[in-house]
Design goal:
The complex is a heteropentamer of chains A (93), B (489), C (492), D (105) and E (230). Chain B is mostly helical. Chain B is built from 18 helices and two strands. Chain B has a domain of 218 residues. Chain B has a two-stranded antiparallel sheet. In chain B, helix 12 runs antiparallel to helix 14 and helix 14 runs antiparallel to helix 16. By secondary structure, chain E is mostly helical. Classes of the chains: A mainly alpha (93), B mainly alpha (489), C mainly alpha (492), D mainly alpha (105), E mainly alpha (230).
């Protein structure tokens, strides 16, 4: 059974790295949501269904919704280094 | 509680002055003058009790193992009386001098607070209380030094703070160190450190730290740098604070330190007195020479102050009873002599806008009474009998001779000659005919003239009455005797 | 009977006030806040009286004592910090009634200052009372969220930037603290500080956990080099907020460090951490003061002075290891310092705020002549300055004296040298400011209608910091009623 | 039962990864994501180590994590709100560039 | 420039590695068993008649943490509200309507989620579930409804809305303070009806947490139609 655990943790790390190593914000956030769902599985594996429920609803759900909203606000400007007002102008297109 | 009066009354006066604000000048003058007269009366009555052997002590517990207290012993009262009485005289002068100035509420308020702090320094019963008042004095003087708000004043204020707070820090370490090894050590004639007499190196270090602390205000070279610059302050400030309260707080601290904390015996046996004496002697000679070359009258007086302060330090550091008594007497004598001169300088500047010695020709004819007063004080300073300066210098020199310190006698004699050298040119310059015509009316604002005459008269009186009970000389001898085991001259 | 519930009420009352002020709307919220503040002051005074009277006591929330439940602990130290918070809080509340008065409903976070501020007050009280290391985490988050939001209240770019930086520091601190708790709990299996203190045995996991917790708290207390977020946050917040942040919020996380280092953790358990904290504190004193000296904007100067003054708080840790005498003196001294700095800094920030609104700008060099037209504010700056320099007679002097005595009693003169040098550096930057205010100049200052009333608040706070020197015996009594000194078995 | 170690190790890695991201990533939202990852790492460590208890997982770390999740979402919401407002005011999404001058209130 | 960026990467990398090492060392030093407070907690929960230990810990033993946590949620909502540029414009975009997919999904999911939430509260005292979990699901359902435009909150900073946001915390404070009247301590439920009271608190908390999460989202949601900039 350890194989499954190792795979799961490996997935978690991989998604986490992917989420951080991703310049397109929208993708980052989607990966974070997926990360939350995998976390919920991990909680079940660790015998904590209560935490799993909360993680799925809050960690993936509410956090995800908040993040997507914020990304929407920033108009998906994933350029990591916008250089000032001009960039902001673009963002409003 | 009566012991707190000399501290509390000026403090209260200062507070009221600040709260009255800028516009209510009449009320301000009344409160200040009444305060000065009232506290002078109390001080005089305290002196009478102290002569009769009654001293009052009062303490407030403040920190664990630390009380804050004052005691009305004869030595402290001498300084307190000088500060309080001259405060009254200076007030009259300042009211005239500051007639059209701005920020008078601030000026008179902090002025009163300075007096309060100086009285605290005088009456503090132990090193910690003394340190506290000493720092308060530094702080309350600062607004007076920068009073004009000009860039020079601000620069002088910065310099003053740099020295004063640096000295305060040294003093703090010394005082705290002493408290940590010896506990509470109220000043006791002859020394208060019997319990820790063995710890010589620590005691030497503490002595050095405290001398560094007091030395700043006592303008002991090389810690004198702030004093000439601080003369940008208005004349009453220079007069009272830099001739009486502030600088005397420094030398008074040294007197307490040597005579009543360490005691002459311990100070001698630790070998800390002689270096102090040498430093003072060097200061006397160097600053006298510098004074010779100053054209600005106030600066010349400032360097003269530095020299005269070191007279007191040297007398104290010699650890002989006569010299110590002379030092204490000189504290009072120099106060009246130097305040006369600063008053004069201020009056001449305010009336004729003359600041430099070289601009003075004609001044004597224009302001005869003022310049006569100046002359009296100048001769007194040079040690011409029978004026005040002679009495204390005689004691100082005699003490040095008795102690076998011939070099100290030579220093005193040399510097007396130098004093003539830097004072006489002022007089001769003023006597020369110049552009100032004799005045038709009063020679200056009477509120400035009569205080000058009054302090000049005091200079004469102190000299003439030197042997009588109640005169500074007699007082000093009485106050210093217990430190030398009940010695009588 | 009510007195038994003081710890609970000190949390519940401001929390209720926070909720009600939100419901009340922005017009009536100030009244709610004033009533709440008055109630807290009364409760805080009662707590001090009770602790002095009956010594420290514990309050089992939910009727479950530790280890099952969470115990609130009221001792001399927590009572002292709570009463400090009450006094400063009252001042800030009074000052804020005028500061945030505006017809623009959307200004200052839509009038939500009052709710945020009462939440912050709640969380500070909770932090000073809690005896549970996980509950500390929740309290710290409450403090952090309310503090960050209050910083951004003006909505300006600079404030938002500062708030964001503060928030990230907060997040890093929160996660690190929780990680520390996780490791500590895994090793010891306890969360209550007293039980931890009794059961800690040398163990690398527990030590790592505690070290991480302290590191996180150091970040929140803004000890150099973790001070990077503080000057911008404290400098760009609205003035009443700056006052509360500098005088109270840094003390909140510091208080937990104090309890952990001197109460929970046995001597030598974390190796040289105490000396390291002392060294960092010394660096903070020097670095913060030097930075303050070169600031051109008044609130930045005051904020850097907080960086420096926070340094003093950490000198207690090396001093406390120098023997019983030094221990008692150092703890008392640092408590006096915390209170006097709290009062003085609140007064100074509020006075800076008033100066800024009088002048219409925050450039120090253009404030010449303020002494003439704003004497009350200048006096406030002067009084606050005196206590921060540690000059007599002031609370700061009391603190410096006790700490210097502690260093000398322990034979460690170099800490005394740091203290003395710190006082001189404080004098340097404070007199730089004072010199400008006293300089000759004819600044024609606007006088806001509310100025005369609210300008007395900072003066009262600064004056209280000076007069505090007379209250040192009281603080000494509270120190001897603190669990830190009781456990160590020493009395000042 | 040593599988808890797998999760604890994963938690430690996530924590370190989050630390790196929080310090190294410039975009403000990436920083918030990093903080969330740090949180998840700590939670994994907490509950993972709680699984060493005999007779089922320790309930105390689970309660702590439930609290922690709620606190983290609160922090996230605040962070995002500040980011949006900051972006509106300056057009910036990182803290390294200076906001344009003249924006001071 | 590149050197600068290189330097900014080096410090975080070092910090991360350092943390990894520190944590690793600490974890490996632990024994493989450790009960923590599990045993006394279970015993305590059994004594008070709540089979789900986690619920007992959250609402009873460590109810104080939970009280402060509800405070955190409300505080965050207030904080987010205070950061809005224009509260009146709230939810314009939210109410702007949902696509067909989201609409259908919501229609199917929302009732189920409501049921799940209710169920979680009811079973919370015995099985997995409870106020947190139920509240979380409830909140998620509410947010879904908002997103798909089915619920259109007539948002304003009006009194009624404010009451809704604050009521959870106020009720909880009331429940917490109530025992003081009968001589108990804060949050000390009387033993005779402890179980019922806890269930009541749980139900209230579920609503409160759900409402808080929804309002957190509402307060935060952007109104980008007019452009986000001032």
């Amino acid at each position: 059974m350890h194989v499954f655990d190792i795979l799961l943790v490996g997935m978690l790390i991989w998604i986490a790295v992917g989420s951080l190593n991703q310049n397109r914000l929208f993708k980052s956030v989607v990966m974070l949501i997926i990360f939350g769902l995998f976390m919920a599985i991990a909680w079940i594996r660790l015998g904590s269904p209560d935490v799993a429920l909360a993680e799925a609803a809050i960690g993936a759900g509410v956090t995800g919704a908040l993040m997507l909203d914020a990304v929407g606000h920033l108009r998906e400007r994933a350029t990591p280094y916008p250089l000032g007002p001009e960039a902001a102008e673009d963002a409003d297109e | 509680m009566i012991a707190w009066v000399p501290v509390a009354v000026p403090a209260l006066v200062g507070l009221i002055t600040l709260m009255l604000g800028e516009t209510r000048g009449r009320a301000r003058n009344a409160v200040n003058l009444l305060g000065a007269i009232g506290s002078s009366a109390v001080v005089v009555s305290l002196v009478r009790s102290a002569y009769a052997g009654d001293t009052f002590t009062s303490r407030i517990p403040m920190l664990p193992g630390l009380t804050f207290g004052v005691s009305t012993d004869l030595l402290g009262l001498l300084f307190s009386a000088v500060a309080t009485v001259l405060w009254g005289v200076t007030l009259v002068y300042a009211i005239g001098y500051m007639d059209h100035a701005r920020d008078r509420a601030r000026f008179f308020g902090f002025f009163a607070w300075c007096i309060s702090a100086a009285n605290g320094v005088a009456l503090a019963e132990d090193p910690i209380s003394l340190f506290i008042f000493y720092e308060v004095l530094s702080l309350t003087t600062y607004p007076l030094v920068v009073h004009n708000g000009t860039p020079e004043a601000l620069a002088a204020g910065r310099k003053y703070l740099f020295y004063a707070l640096g000295g305060g820090a040294a003093l703090l370490v010394g005082v705290a160190w002493l408290a940590s090894i010896a506990g509470p050590t109220p000043f006791t004639p002859g020394g208060a450190l019997g319990a820790v007499a063995g710890r010589n190196n620590e005691l030497r270090a503490i002595f050095a730290l405290m001398v560094a602390g007091f030395g700043v205000k006592a303008a002991l070279m090389p810690l004198h740098g702030w004093l000439p610059g601080a003369m940008v302050a208005p004349a009453p400030v220079s007069s009272l604070l830099h001739a009486v309260a502030v600088v005397k707080a420094g030398v008074f601290g040294i007197i307490r330190l040597v005579n009543e904390l360490y005691g002459p015996e311990l100070a001698t046996s630790l070998g800390v007195a002689t270096p102090l004496a040498l430093l003072a002697a060097a200061t006397i000679l160097i600053s006298s020479v510098i004074a010779l070359r100053q054209d600005d009258l106030k600066r010349r007086l400032a360097y003269s102050t530095i020299a005269q302060l070191s007279y007191i330090t040297l007398g104290t550091a010699l650890c002989s009873p006569l010299a110590a008594a002379g030092a204490v007497a000189h504290l009072a004598h120099h106060a009246v002599m130097k305040i006369t001169m600063f008053f004069t300088a201020g009056s001449v500047y305010e009336t004729l806008h003359v600041k430099k010695v070289s601009q003075m020709p004609g001044v004597a004819r224009r302001m005869p009474l003022t310049m006569i007063s100046f002359a009296v004080a100048a001769f007194a300073l040079a040690g011409i009998p029978p004026l005040a300066g002679f009495a204390s210098k005689w004691l100082l020199a005699a003490g040095a001779a008795e102690d076998g310190s011939v070099w100290a006698v030579l220093v005193y004699v040399t510097s007396g000659a130098l004093a003539i050298g830097y004072m006489v040119p002022v007089l001769t310059s003023a006597l020369r005919p110049g552009k100032h015509a004799p005045a038709a009316g009063p020679e200056s604002d009477p509120r400035m003239l009569w205080p000058i005459v009054a302090v000049a008269v005091l200079t004469v009186v102190f000299g003439l009455t030197a042997g009588l009970p109640g005169s500074p000389t007699h007082w000093a001898i009485t106050a210093i005797a217990p430190s030398f085991g009940g010695w009588t001259p | 009977m009510l007195l038994d519930h003081l710890p609970a009420l000190l949390v519940a009352v401001p929390l209720t006030g926070a909720a009600l002020s939100f419901v009340a709307g922005h017009r009536r919220a100030p009244h709610v806040a004033l009533v709440t503040a008055a109630a807290i002051v009364a409760l805080a005074v009662a707590l001090v009286a009770r602790v002095l009277d009956a010594g420290p006591f514990r309050y089992a929330v939910g009727g479950w004592t530790a280890p099952l439940g969470i115990d609130l602990v009221a001792d001399g130290a927590s009572a002292l910090f709570i009463v400090l918070t009450a006094i400063v809080g009252m001042g800030v509340t009074l000052y804020a009634t005028a500061y945030f008065r505006t017809d623009d409903e959307t200004a200052y976070g839509h009038g939500l200052f009052w709710t945020l501020w009462l939440f912050m007050w709640t969380s500070l009280n909770a932090l000073f009372l809690t005896g549970d290391v996980f509950n500390v985490y929740v309290c710290l988050e409450l403090v952090g969220i309310s503090a960050v939001t209050l910083v951004t209240l003006s909505g300006g770019a600079e404030a938002l930037r500062a708030g964001a930086r503060y928030l990230y520091a907060s997040m890093l601190g929160a996660m690190t603290y929780l990680l520390g708790v996780a490791l500590l709990y895994a090793s010891v299996g306890q969360l209550d500080m007293t039980i931890l203190a009794d059961t800690l045995t040398p163990d690398v996991t527990a030590a790592t956990g505690l070290a991480l917790m302290i590191a996180a708290l150091v970040l929140k207390t803004a000890l150099v080099p973790a001070h990077f977020w503080l000057p911008a946050a404290h400098g760009s917040a609205p003035s009443p907020v700056s006052a509360a942040l500098s005088s109270l919020v840094v003390k909140g996380s510091y208080f937990v460090i104090l309890r952990l280092m001197l109460y929970v953790i046995p001597v030598g358990y974390l190796g040289g951490t105490d000396v390291a904290l002392g060294v960092l504190g010394s660096v903070a004193i020097v670095w913060g003061s030097v930075q303050a000296l070169f600031q051109t904007r008044i609130k930045q100067l005051v904020a850097y002075s907080t960086v420096a003054q926070v340094g003093y708080l950490f000198l207690v840790f090396p001093l406390a290891r120098l023997g019983a005498d030094a221990f008692a003196l150092a703890v008392t001294g640092v408590l006096v310092h915390a209170v006097s700095h709290g009062l003085a800094k609140a007064g100074l920030f509020l006075a800076s705020g008033s100066l800024m609104s009088r002048f219409g700008h925050d450039r120090i060099d253009d404030m010449r002549g303020a002494a003439r037209s704003a004497p009350v504010l200048t006096l406030t700056v002067a009084l606050a300055g005196i206590t921060m320099m540690g000059l007599p007679p002031s609370g700061g002097f009391g603190a410096k004296w006790l700490l210097v005595s502690s260093a000398l009693a322990g034979g460690a003169w170099w800490w005394a040298a740091v203290l003395v040098a710190g006082g001189l550096l404080a004098a340097a930057y404070m007199f730089r400011l004072l010199a400008v205010l006293l300089a000759d100049g004819d600044a024609v200052l606007g006088t806001p209608a509310s100025a005369p009333r609210t300008e007395w608040v900072p003066l009262a706070l600064a004056a209280a910091a000076v007069v505090l020197v007379a209250a040192v015996p009281l603080i000494t009594d509270l120190a001897s009623a603190s669990n830190i000194l009781i456990r160590a078995g020493v009395t000042p | 039962m040593t599988s808890y170690l797998i999760y604890v190790a994963g938690g430690a890695l996530l924590y370190a990864l989050g630390t790196y991201g929080l310090l190294a990533r410039r975009h403000l939202i990436h920083k918030v994501i990093s903080a969330n990852l740090m949180g998840s790492g700590v939670f994994l460590i907490l509950i993972g180590l709680g699984n060493r208890a005999e007779g089922g997982p320790d309930p105390v770390p689970q309660a702590m994590v439930l609290t922690g999740i709620v606190v983290t979402v609160a922090l996230t919401a605040l962070g995002l709100a500040i980011i949006k407002r900051y972006y509106s005011a300056t057009g910036l999404t990182n803290l390294d560039d200076e906001p344009p001058a003249g924006e001071r209130p | 420039m590149s050197e600068h960026r290189h330097r900014t990467r080096l410090l975080p990398l070092t910090a991360a590695m350092l943390m990894l090492g520190v944590i690793g060392r600490a974890i490996l030093a632990l024994p493989t068993t450790g009960d923590g407070l599990a045993v006394p907690m279970r015993a305590g929960a059994e004594a008070s008649g709540i089979p789900n230990v986690i619920t007992a810990v959250l609402l009873d033993f460590r109810g104080y943490d939970t009280l402060l946590e509800i405070a955190v949620l409300m505080l965050a909502t207030v904080a987010v509200l205070s950061l809005r540029e224009d509260p009146a414009a709230l939810s314009r975009r939210i109410a702007g309507g949902a696509g067909p997919v989201l609409g259908t999904l919501t229609r199917a999911l929302a009732p189920i989620m409501l049921l799940v939430a209710g169920h979680l509260v009811l079973v919370g005292s015995s099985g997995p579930g409870g106020a947190f979990q139920g509240g979380a699901v409830l909140g998620a359902a509410g947010i879904l409804l908002m997103l798909s435009g089915y619920a259109r909150p007539a948002w304003a900073s009006r009194r009624a809305v404010r009451w809704v946001l604050a009521v959870g915390l106020i009720v909880f404070i009331g429940v917490a303070l109530y025992p003081l009247l009968s001589g108990g301590t804060l949050l000390q439920y009387p033993p005779e009806n402890r179980k019922d009271l806890i269930l009541l608190v749980e139900a209230l908390l579920t609503l409160s947490i759900g409402a808080s999460l929804v309002s957190l989202f509402l307060a935060s949601a952007s109104s980008t139609e007019g452009g986000g900039r001032r």
